[in-house]
Design a protein that fits this description.
It is built from nine helices and 18 strands. It is of the alpha/beta class. Strand 11 and strand 12 form a beta hairpin. Helix 6 packs antiparallel against helix 9.
Amino acid sequence: MKPLEITADFECANAEEIRREGDRSFSLSTRPDRAVDCEQYELADYYVAFRLINPNPQPVEAEVVYRELNYPETGRTLAVRDLFENELLVEDWRPLPREEVEIDAVKNSCRMRVTVQAEASLDVSSMYWMSGSQVYERLGQVEGEKGVRVSSLGQTAQSREIPLIELESRRKNAPLCALGATPQCHELGTIAIMGIFEAALKGKLEGVLERCSLALLPLSNPDGNALGSCMTNALRQNVIFGFGAAGSGEGAVECERVWDYLSRTRPLFFLEFHSYPHLNRPSFRPYDVDRALFPDDESRRRGETFFAAVNKVAPNPGVRLEAGSAIEKQFRPSLISRLIADLGVPATLYKLHNRETVADNVDHSLQVLEGVATAMCR
């Protein structure tokens, strides 16, 4: 048998200190973000992605130990997908069975057993992910289709475009509603937004588009996506909690460009999709923001309608952001908090989960959009 190979030299990878322990066994660590502008997350490293390569004409079982700075005692749902001749399909991601993972809380690590198919590769990650290259390629294929406008909000420090997809309503003077992928760029947000876009192309959003136009932000942190970060950009700025400075010209370029667009267009609502890998967190869960944080009675009324619709779709109670609480203060520099407090735009981040299939996560994202659009766009 030829030895297996391992690499983190590809887009979206995140692994370092890779060591060969045997012909089919390895150890590695995640690479911390080391954000320069967010002390709480300067060592965030919960995201890992690497690739195993099998040159043999038969399947081979591999064993990998990976370490984090603070691996949760309850563990994470790991994800895998097979690659044959480097064909990448988002739908091929699947959860790694729990019995194939052993947690060592003392060493902040887990040991996994995975099978790499004959003459194929296997992606292993703590998140389902979709690369920026796949997004750009797909948007290039559909640009110019009727009712679809693809543009850019600007470029990142590494000259990647921040793409914007606008879907035109069937109704004249319909309100604009906005949806975005989290800047925590491997948290299923990009997959959810692109899944919603594909549903629209297939005519599955006719009811929504009869009510409103849609603005979709599938890559709000393109550099972070490519570099395999948890939540930072190429300059090690924390993008998810970087919106406190947005609008001043001093914020991260990703935050400035997204804030400029949303503050100018003032959508009726904003949905930001995230996900959990944690085994002890529920699937499908919103953040429920205290209505007292809205700036006036009219926006509070819209907020009440918005959160009632979100919570009706969600199978689990939301994470409550009570005004003045520790978690609410933590989120003040986030996009959803700025939209609510500064513009009165109802907004939430919505958690999907790795334990669910890609298809089920996309289907649930569509349910959230349809439920909220029906309630808000009367």
